[in-house]
Design a protein that fits this description.
The structure holds two protein chains of two kinds.
Chain A (H helix, E strand, L loop, with lengths): L1 H13 L3 H10 L4 H17 L3 H16 L8 H8 L4 H14 L7 H12 L4 H14 L2 H14 L5 H17 L4 H11 L5 H17 L8 H10 L3 H14 L4 H17 L3 H18 L7 H16 L3 H17 L1 H5 L2 H7 L5 H14 L5 H14 L3 H20 L5 H11 L8 H14 L4 H13 L1 H5 L9 H12 L7 H8 L9 H23 L5 H18 L4 H22 L5 H6 L12 H4 L25 H21 L2 H16 L10 H6 L3 H4 L20 H21 L2 H12 L64 H12 L1 H46 L7 H4 L2 H7 L12 H11 L1 H12 L5 H14 L4 H15 L9 H11 L13 E5 L3 E9 L6 E10 L4 E9 L5 E3 L11 E2 L9 E10 L6 E12 L4 E12 L5 E2 L5 H9 L4 E7 L6 H12 L2 E6 L2 E8 L4 E9 L2 E8 L2 H16 L2
Antiparallel strand pairs in A: 1-2, 2-3, 3-7, 4-6, 4-8, 5-7, 8-9, 10-13, 11-15, 12-13, 13-14, 14-15
Chain B lengths: L1 E8 L4 E6 L5 H16 L8 E2 L11 E7 L2 E7 L5 H19 L4 H6 L1 H11 E2 L2 E2 L4 H17 L5 H11 L5 H18 L3
Antiparallel strand pairs in B: 1-2, 1-5, 3-4, 4-5, 6-7
Keywords (chain B): Cytoplasmic vesicle, Golgi apparatus, Membrane, Protein transport, Transport
InterPro entries (chain B): AP_complex_ssu, AP_mu_sigma_su, APS3, Clathrin_sm-chain_CS, Longin-like_dom_sf
Main location (chain B): membrane
Chain lengths: ~1250, ~190
């Protein structure tokens, strides 16, 4: 053994450490991979050794290799080993490695749960910290579920270092285990007001992350955040809060109004650019949310725009970038105020920084008007030519198209110009956006009827010159353009100047090199062209021309028939046969043109992309239902379905349609007409939209303005868009001149002054009349289309699961799971289903119950209430706007009861309902508040909070202690998460006793341990859920003197049965150092773990606390003896039990009985129950009038059942347990409890 | 949320990578390469924000980086983080490194990647900003380093010995240590 260790440490000396590894890699630059593979072999050897130091070293090196891209998941198990080392050094290495390479599908993660739990509860805060940090990177849904409760406890740790980490990690837990959000939220909220700024900032951070995804659930926190914003000086916190407000304001415009002032103040006062920027951003968000309601915030807009301009003009590129970013947000709602800075933005387009250019591009989108569109696009086209990198050029291209096509081509006055821009864009080599250009061409040609002739001419030229592009067509996306060109030429072939030439162009052999889907379009449209050509040629007397055309087709088409693409092949062979047939007919001198063109008659209408989705499901139609019953094995299988089908159809669809409407349809039609009338792009002459599409002749009724003669219709070669700009200018000038003539002389002078600098001159939109009166056909939508727009939400978003109402009171079923409960859960599952329902149905009941109590209370509290109301009124004025955001909070009795610390935690409460009862009864303050909320105006929690602090001021001395207890209670609370709220029992509580119930006296489980003039110790013992042989003793030390207490050592004389757990390496008689010092007047809590063997008997352990009392002059050594009393009760753990499982347990006959009678118990029955629950860790299974069954379970799995009956002052308790000795002791202890009062 | 933190040098060699979302090792390397490609071609006098890393995140994500001498510090963040705030955070992080390593240079990061991780862990946790106060960060890091030292560290004593020993004659040293070790170990092992 000794030798082995020695050998290990020698080997150890020759292991490479991380530095050696790095050095080695650097020295083997040429054969790095080979060197690393030998290193990995070494590491594998090292991992096989028992020495944990060697392993840790190996894992450390693996972490480095992981960074270089080596998969180290094979060492996952070794990483877990290193994580579980007791030494901080190794543990840290292990957790680091885990955080770098573990992920959800790493299977060894399952093994870590207990280790992590142990580390989380480690007395060393850095062990805990390291575990939290690691866990934050690899938390899985399982880990989140199992550890949520432990982490939640850590949120109230004494060390801010742990608190802030625990708070942050909760976000990850919520993501993985959404059920934990509601139970944990009250505490998270509490942390917003943590005294430590780091913890506070962490809480703000988490809530901001949550609220960003589901803002509406967090509106009720707005007042709290508002308070933080006005009081905090931490810029990080401020930035987060201000960002959060940005997310909240769209939901609550009144909040926005309140925000404007403090935000503008901040803008004026802060020197931090980051804060200033976020303020501006949020002000913008506010203004956006207000834009509909209040137009009078121009001052704020001006301020923002002004500040942003300063940012944009700054030499710091970062500020410039952000300025543009924010500017684009203003643009959406207040385009006018941004447009005045057009010069600045155009300037940014020339910036050397691509990020800035892109941002400026974004801005341009909103800045165009009819007036400046051409000018801006011209500028962009120049940039397109200059841009060398393809990504930026592509970005430019899409922007140009975006800008032009926005809001239904609103700003385009001249579509010929637009078409020529599109054609110019086709010259870009290597762009990915050929598809985009093509779809624009199609869209414009289809929807702008007036432009078709021009478009067709352009497309014909494009097709003719296609060979210029074909060279690199295959590779670059631009070939998509020929798809559009071919289709347009074919579909609108009647506009073609020279169809024969185009037909030939389309049948060139080179076409066969195009992608299949384009060839298919070529073939199909060649057929359309063919029809047109035939038609024109048949008018002639000479029939040879027509026959030649057919011949051409017959010659060229076989090329496509051989195509590898099915679509092409199929179309080509169809058309080939058709043409051959036509040729035959032609040879017989039969007129075929009419019939051939009939093949392609009718117009295609644009259909909106979402149209299909928007078709409403007719009333009564269930798409999931069988139309026919699934076929049975009956013999008549073959005939029946047919019959049913026809029947069904008539039944379902047709009559439905008629049935639904008439009136409704008429109404809708009316509405639609109204809408069409208001839409400038609608053709109003036609009776209904449907008809326009169906009857092509409608086109003739469209008022099409004569095309300006100065515009050349036939453009030789490829068109130049530039000339349109010039033409447009000329045209406008002409118009202006005409107008001027009409104007009066005075005005004329002014105008001419402006005319000179018309580029930037504020010319109003109305002055510009479009060159073409254009009708833009809107896309077709089905009748009764649903106006929903929610189809863009991603169903896979993990944040969707966190969309949880946080203001509802907690139901017991929601408590965080504690591991030991799961076994129980399985047994009781049948009852579980009802849980959710009961919770839901309870809510209204609770309210009514509360109301009743309210009435009763009102008299008693009238006077108190009066004074409070006065106070409230004062506050009202300040915070009127926040009020109803908070209504939810008032209805959060559970949370409030926790806030009032000395309130007895009621493990009895079978549901949130009863908890509410207690809370309400216990806290008249909350009562009054909610009462007031009901009859007049809702109240703010600030009041409640104030009152709370007041009430706790009474007990100022105990305040600290209370805090500790609160923690405890919360912890305990989670032990009852699966409590089944039994319907019957619930009822009886409701109807029977609620009204007569009085407030419970305050209870505490902490009992005095020892006390002298320096220090007071109180303690509480709890069973450890994870280990049947462990109990945790929490001791609160309170410094009662004016001196500093330090070096406290806690020691206990172990018995055979119970031992204090001491750290490894310390002897059995060593004391434990209490991990803190106590300044005067301060109290703090420490926990000590004891192992016990038998739990059936109570135990007493003697112990001593030694400590040093230090003041200015002297320091003395003091000691205090104590006796720790382990009662049997302390081994019990509150465990919920469903009545059916309870009945089974009693029936099983394994339990032995015993009973107890208490005389002279002078307290209401529910107090009695509460006491048993609280002091002895029982839970109520069922309660009927003054009879109740209760259950608890020991840490070693003994079941304890009680039946408590009360009549007058006599209480009889019948008890059953599988361990009679223990039962006797527990009963004695219960007796003790009641004899004390 | 911060999605990833990458530190690499002017040649794209990673010095520290920290992903707060899972990617395979190959993907991680690809992201590093892409990020390096995007960042390295930018002048020093352009803005420190970059959109368009296609591998991480998508449109909601931004790269925010700073370039110090031979190293790039790149943070990939979503829109819930303040851009200027993150720039400050990078500065805080680098200054903290400077304090902890006393005039930090690339070599410190190369040889002490683990330490850099430990420092980073005090600044950012699970993708969220944990602490921005440099003194607090340094204090926590130092306490933990002291703890490590008190435990003897992973390599503290042996490493020094090793570097001395490595150049020496092999047969000699084990013997020496052998004797010493047995002497020390035996008493504590005797009870068994």
């Amino acid at each position: 053994m000794a030798l082995k260790i020695v050998k290990g440490s020698i080997d150890r000396m020759f292991d490479k450490n991380l530095q050696d590894l790095v050095r080695g890699i650097r020295n083997h630059k040429e054969d790095e991979a080979k060197y690393i593979s030998t290193c990995i072999d070494e590491i594998k050897q090292e991992l096989k050794q028992d020495n944990i130091a060697v392993k840790a070293n190996a894992v450390c090196k693996l972490t480095y290799l992981q960074m270089l891209g080596y998969d180290v998941s094979w060492a996952a198990f070794n990483i877990v080993e290193v994580m579980s080392s007791s030494k901080f050094t190794y543990k840290r290495i292990g957790y680091l490695a885990a955080s770098q390479c573990f992920h959800e599908s790493t299977d060894v993660i399952m093994l870590t749960t207990n280790q992590i739990r142990k580390d989380l509860s480690s007395p060393n805060q850095y062990d805990t910290g390291v575990a939290l940090t690691g866990l934050s990177c690899f938390v899985t849904p399982d880990l989140a579920r199992d550890l949520a409760n432990d982490i939640m406890t850590l949120m109230s740790h004494t060390k801010p270092y742990i608190r802030k980490k625990a708070v942050l990690i909760m976000y990850k837990v919520f993501l993985k285990y959404p059920e934990s959000l509601r139970p944990a939220f009250p505490r998270l909220k509490e942390k917003l007001e943590d005294p430590d700024p780091g913890v506070q900032s962490a809480a703000v951070n988490v809530i901001c992350e949550l609220a960003r995804r589901n803002p509406k659930n967090y509106l009720s926190l707005a007042p709290l955040f508002f308070k933080l914003m006005t009081s905090s000086t931490n810029n990080w916190v401020l930035i987060k809060i201000i960002k959060l407000f940005g997310a909240l304001t769209p939901l609550e415009p009144r909040l926005g109004k309140k925000l404007i002032e403090p935000l503008t103040n901040l803008i004026h006062s802060t020197s931090a650019m980051s804060l200033l920027y976020e303020c501006v951003n949020t002000v913008i968000a506010v203004l956006i949310s207000l834009s509909s309601g209040m137009p009078n915030h121009s001052a704020s807009i001006q301020l923002c725009v002004q500040k942003l301009r300063i940012l944009i003009e700054d030499s710091d590129q970062n500020l410039k970038y952000l300025g543009l970013l924010a500017m684009s947000k203003i643009l959406k709602t207040h385009p006018k105020s941004v447009q005045s800075h057009k010069d600045l933005i155009l300037q940014c387009l020339d910036d050397k920084d691509e990020s800035i250019r892109l941002r400026a591009l974004d801005l341009l989108y909103g800045m165009v008007s009819k007036k400046n569109l051409m000018e801006i696009v011209k500028k962009l086209m120049l940039h397109v030519d200059k841009a060398e990198g393809t990504t930026y050029r592509d970005e430019l291209l899409t922007k140009i198209i975006d800008i032009c096509s926005q809001s239904n081509y609103q700003y385009i006055t001249n579509f010929e110009w637009y078409i020529s821009i599109l054609v110019e864009l086709t010259r870009l080599e290597g762009t990915r956006h050929g598809h985009l250009i093509a779809s624009q061409m199609l869209d414009v040609a289809i929807r702008v009827k007036a432009i078709r002739a021009f478009a067709v001419a352009q497309m014909a030229t494009l097709l003719d010159n296609a060979h210029l592009l074909t060279g690199n067509m295959q590779r670059n996306g631009i070939c998509e353009v020929s798809y559009a060109a071919a289709w347009i030429c074919g579909e609108f072939s009647e506009h073609l100047e020279n169809p024969m030439q185009t037909l030939e162009a389309m049948l060139r052999p080179k076409v066969a090199t195009l992608p299949g889907h384009i060839q298919a379009v070529y073939v199909q449209n060649a057929a359309k062209l063919f029809a047109t050509v035939l038609k024109s040629q048949e008018g002639n007397t000479d029939s040879t021309a027509a026959q030649e055309t057919s011949q051409l087709m017959i010659e060229r088409l076989p090329l496509f028939v051989q195509s590898a693409n099915l679509e092409v092949q199929e179309r080509a062979s169809c058309i080939l046969q058709l043409v051959k047939y036509i040729q035959k007919l032609q040879q017989k001198d039969v007129e075929v043109a009419e019939e051939v063109s009939a093949l392609f008659a009718g117009e295609l209408n644009p259909v909106a992309p979402k149209a299909q989705k928007k078709v409403p499901v007719p009333e009564g139609l269930d798409l999931d239902a069988w139309i026919n019953e699934p076929p049975s094995e009956s013999e008549s299988e073959d005939e029946q379905p047919k019959a049913i089908f026809t029947k069904e159809e008539t039944k379902h669809s047709r009559p439905r349609h008629i049935e639904v409407d008439e009136k409704e349809l008429a109404r809708r039609r009316e509405a639609r007409k109204q809408e069409q009338a208001n839409n400038p792009f609608y053709i109003k002459a036609s009776p209904s939209s449907q008809k326009v599409y169906q009857d092509t002749p409608g086109v003739e009724h469209i008022p099409v303005v004569q095309i300006d003669l100065s515009v050349p219709l036939k453009v030789p070669g490829l068109p130049m868009s530039d000339q349109y700009v010039k033409l447009e200018e000329e045209r406008r000038q002409k118009e202006r001149a005409e107008k001027k003539k009409k104007e009066k002389k005075k005005r004329k002078e002014k105008r001419s002054g402006r005319g000179k600098k018309h580029d930037s001159g504020p010319e109003s939109e109305e002055d510009i009349t479009p060159a073409h009166m254009v009708d833009i056909v809107t896309e077709e939508m089905p009748e009764n289309a649903l106006p929903s727009d929610d189809d863009d939400k991603d169903p896979n978003d993990p944040h969707k699961a966190l969309d949880i109402d946080l203001d509802k009171p907690l139901a017991d079923s929601e408590k965080l799971p504690v591991r030991s409960h799961r076994a129980v859960e399985a047994a009781k599952s049948p009852g579980e289903d009802g849980d959710a329902e009961t919770v839901a149905t309870q809510q209204p009941k609770k309210k009514s119950g509360k109301d009743k109590r309210d009435d009763k209370k009102k008299d008693k509290d009238k006077e108190r209430k009066k004074s409070k109301d006065e106070k409230k009124k004062k506050k009202h004025k300040h915070e009127e706007k926040e009020e109803d955001l908070l209504r939810g909070e008032v209805h959060e009795p559970v949370v409030q009861s926790e806030g009032i610390s000395q309130v007895a935690e009621l493990p009895t409460s079978t549901s949130a309902e009863e908890a509410a009862t207690v809370a309400a009864a216990e806290a008249p303050v909350a009562e009054v508040v909610s009462g007031a909320a009901q009859d007049s105006e809702p109240d703010e929690p600030k009041d409640t909070e104030m009152e709370e602090t007041k009430s706790s001021k009474h007990k100022k001395k105990k305040q600290k202690k209370e805090k500790e207890e609160k923690e405890k209670k919360k912890k305990k609370r989670h032990h009852h998460h699966h409590r089944h709220s039994d319907g019957g029992g619930e009822e009886s509580v409701q109807n029977g006793t609620v009204e007569e119930e009085e407030p419970l006296p305050s209870m505490s489980n902490y009992c005095l341990l020892a006390e002298n003039s320096y220090i007071k110790m109180v303690y509480d013992i709890q069973g450890n859920l994870q280990d049947g042989s462990q109990v945790v003793v929490s001791v609160i030390f309170e410094n009662k003197c004016d001196s500093f207490l330090k070096s406290m050592e806690f020691n206990v004389l172990d018995s055979l049965n119970s031992k204090l757990q001491r750290p490894e390496g310390s002897g059995p008689h060593d004391g434990l150092t209490v991990p803190f010092q106590l300044p005067p007047g301060v109290s703090n809590e420490a926990r000590f773990v004891f192992t016990v063997q038998s739990i059936v008997m109570p135990q007493k352990l003697k112990g001593t606390l030694t400590f040093i009392v230090k003041n200015e002059e002297s320091s003395t050594h003091e000691k205090l003896d104590f006796k720790l009393h382990f009662t049997c009760t302390s081994y019990l753990i509150t465990t919920p039990c469903y009545s059916d499982a309870y009945a089974k347990l009693l029936e099983s006959g394994d339990l032995k009985g015993s009973s107890l009678k208490l005389e002279g118990v002078n307290m209401p029955f529910h107090h009695l129950l509460a006491r048993i629950c609280f002091h002895h860790h029982f839970s109520v299974v069922e309660r009927i009038d003054s009879c109740s069954s209760m259950y608890s379970r020991s840490i070693q799995g003994h079941h304890v059942c009680l039946l408590v009956k009360s009549s007058g002052q006599t209480v009889s308790i019948d008890a059953k347990c599988d361990e009679p000795t223990m039962l006797g002791n527990v009963l004695d202890e219960i007796k003790q409890t009641f004899s004390q009062c | 949320m911060i999605k990833a933190i990458l530190i690499f040098n002017n040649h794209g060699k990673p010095r520290l990578i920290r992903f707060y979302q899972y990617f395979t090792e190959d993907m991680q390397q690809q992201i590093i390469r892409e990020t390096f490609h995007l960042v390295s071609k930018r002048d020093d006098n352009v803005c420190n924000f970059l959109e368009g890393g296609s591998l991480i995140g998508g449109s909601d994500y931004k790269l925010i980086y700073r370039h110090y001498a031979t190293l790039y510090f790149v943070f990939c963040v979503d829109s819930s983080e303040s851009e200027l705030g993150i720039l400050d955070l990078i500065q805080v992080f680098v200054e903290t490194l400077d304090k902890c390593f006393e005039n930090v240079c690339e070599l410190d990061l190369i040889f002490h990647m683990d330490k850099v991780h430990y420092i980073l862990q005090e600044v950012v946790m699970g993708g969220m900003v944990l602490e921005t106060n440099m003194n607090e960060i340094v204090a926590q890091v130092e306490v933990q380093n002291r703890m490590e030292k008190s435990e003897g560290g992973l390599s503290a004593a042996p490493a020094r010995a090793v570097s001395a020993v490595k150049n020496m004659n092999l047969p000699e040293i084990p013997r020496n240590i052998n004797i010493g070790d047995i002497n020390i170990k035996v008493p504590s092992l005797s009870p068994f």
